[in-house]
Amino acid sequence: MLETFFKNTANQSLIYLIIAFLSILIVYFATVQILRRFGKNPNYIIPRHAFKKVTFPLFVILFSFLIRMNSLRHVLGLEDYAYAFKKSSTLMFIFGTTWLLLNIIKIVKNRVIEKYDINTSDNLKARKVTTQFNILERIVVFVIIILAIAIALMSFDSIREIGVSIFASAGVAGIIIGFSAQKMIGTILAGIQIAITQPIKIDDVVIVDGEWGWIEEITLTYVVVKVWDKRRLIVPTTFFIENSFQNWTKTSADILGTVFLYTDYHVPINDLRKELTRILESSDLWDGEANNIQVTDTKANYVELRAMMSAKDSPSAWELRVLVREKLIDFLQQKYPKSLSHTRIYMDQLAAV
After folding, report:
1. pLDDT confidence of 329, banded at 50, 70, 90?
2. Backbone dihedral region of 71: left (phi > 0), alpha (psi from -120 to 50 degrees) or beta?
């Protein structure tokens, strides 16, 4: 009876199907356990919370092999649908592989970026790495998705024949489309160039079209600038390649700040320098580098003074400039009110009359 059972074709197919299914489960759970162990060890690239992002697409890939087996169709009595099963298996394999690759890229990027803290004061290296990996990730993801769609479509003979005929007879249309897409391609290439040359980085302080703000996001086609009043400027990537702009943190986060005062000629400059030093030393915003007051210009009615100071980053420099301007004006009002800029009228001739 047992011999008869094994000689039956349907029973043989069922046995093969069960063996294949158990093999897939063994491979899947073995992979899960390995990734779990890797996730517990900080030296491995797979973090503990990310192993599911790898195992789920892996299960889809393994399941695509099961669908492709002849035994499954024979057990289900769907042998006439061999083409549908094979195409479903192919598409599922392409989808699972693409999903797996995208997740691996995301894991690797996060693993690298988390080693750099962009919130520290001296974050130049962190901003460089974050900018490069964010843009390069988008490039790689774009290429992988395009290739996956192309491979999926080329798996159908009818679509492949249509595509060949279109390519063979659409030379003029291709040229027209090429000219139409020239600007889009230029924008994408500008995004790639920004990733490589890095004229701007994430969290850079820039002045664009007279607006002062931070680089919040960089994509292949546009850059988001967060303005100081919480507005957002959406700027094409080509702007930062083709136009000049100010980048206050290109090489380092520390920056010089200036405050201009317009005073009378009687202003005591030395006393004002001492007061500036006292203000800076009493503030945590000052980094201890630059501290000076200079006479930068003279006019008939006033003297232009420039107070120079330094801070660890641009937000601190802005706050420090506001503080110094307020304190110096208050100092002149309290101690030397005659040093404030004013207009003189001499009445010597009228007094003589």
Report:
1. very high
2. alpha
Does a structural domain hold residue 123?
A: no
Alpha-carbon distance 243 to 278, whole Å? 42
Q: What DSSP state is assigned to residue 49?
A: G
Please, are residues 275 and 259 in contact by the beta-carbon 8 Å criterion? no
Closest CA to 333 of 260, 257, 275: 275
Average pLDDT of every residue of the chain: 75
User: Is 120 among the domain residues?
Assistant: no
Residue 219's domain comprises 133-251
Which of 251, 278, 296 is the last residue before a domain boundary? Answer: 251
Q: Are 221 and 244 found together in one domain?
A: yes
Query: For residue 234, what are the β-bridge partners?
Result: 224
Q: Within 10 Å of residue 13's Cβ, how many Cβ atoms?
A: 18
- Three-class DSSP labels, 262-290: EECCCCCHHHHHHHHHHHHHCCCCEEEEE
Tokens representing 239 are 């702007």
